[in-house]
Amino acid sequence: MSKRFADRVALVFGASRGLGRAIAQELGEAGAQVIASARTVGALNELDDVVKDAGGPPLVQAPLDLMDAAALDRLGAAIFERWGRLDILVNCAAHAPPLTPVGHASFKDVDRAFGVNALAVQRMVRAFDPLLSAAPSARALFMTDDKTSRAYWGPYAASKAAGAAFAAAYRAEKESGTVKVEIYAPPAMPTALRGRFYPGEDRSKLAKPRQVAADVVGKLLAI
Fold this sequence. Notes:
The chain is built from seven helices and six strands, in the order βαβαβαβαβαβαα. The chain is an alpha/beta fold.
């Protein structure tokens, strides 16, 4: 693979598995300095080995919980101190609360769904927009998943819709600037998150995360 993303700094949330991991790998193997974030480090260590074996630079691992707004601010400050800018931001992180009638959803599940799927989007913009704006040409990519008006999907659907609304407002705000904001609805993939919603599904017919990642990096994140 050509190192067409050499000298680019990319931050990927949800990088431990699924599409987030695949995008982080695709970017790293293409030469980007990837800052990979997830809640735990085990899978990030494995991803680091894969990227280095392909000739990419070692990952910068940033384990954090997206419910921790202060941690996002600290990460933004650390990126500023080291690089002074951010060329690419990708948010693939998501929380899948149990499917349940609206009236039965627990406060804990609803709070975490909104914290990860919605509030974290606004907090990312607050923490990283100055870094994206400092780059000559930057890309921010937010994943969406519209499940509105479906029975039992209330907490997930509402929180993802709120996150998409934050991303859409940010896209409109940056329309005339150097930061290009994309909102992307990926195809169905055999991810752990989807497995929680569709446990009996035939996963062999779903799109492969690495194939989707190659398309995303080639079309949406190209600089």
